[in-house]
Design goal:
alpha+beta; single chain; 123 residues; globular; 4 helices; three-stranded antiparallel β-sheet
Length: 123
């Protein structure tokens, strides 16, 4: 059985205002991902928990930016956000998923915020 070739990132670019991370893959697709979106969907245990029941809905991150991007081997990046959160490792596969499913994931997040009485803006 042949192994399926997964798209590989060719470029990761942070906007001048540090609020949008654009990831371009070798299949020609590129995904601009807002810092807020990346922060609230961080793959960290702090946000995702250790099961679906433990997942935390993070509000108040509309003003967050990306302070640093660090490579982790050849499979991921660690993003440090302006609120000092930096425990999530964003694998290439996860970044691709965030790009491809952005509309659905963002809509789900906004519904969760509303259901829990949270806001995007800081309290």
């Amino acid at each position: 059985m042949a192994e399926e070739k997964r798209p590989w990132p060719e470029e990761i670019r942070l906007s001048k205002d540090r609020r949008v991370l654009t990831v371009r893959f070798d299949d020609g697709r590129d995904f601009p991902l807002a810092a807020e979106y990346l922060r609230v969907l961080s793959p960290s245990a702090e946000v995702q928990g250790h099961s679906a029941e433990q997942r935390v809905t993070v509000g108040g991150k509309a003003d967050v930016s990306i302070s640093a991007i660090d490579s982790v081997g050849n499979y991921a990046v660690r993003l440090t956000f302006s609120d000092r959160h930096n425990t999530g490792l964003f694998s290439w596969t996860y970044l691709r998923r965030l790009g491809e499913e952005r509309e659905t994931l963002w809509a789900d997040y906004l519904r969760e915020l509303a259901a829990k009485g949270l806001q995007r803006t800081p309290a």
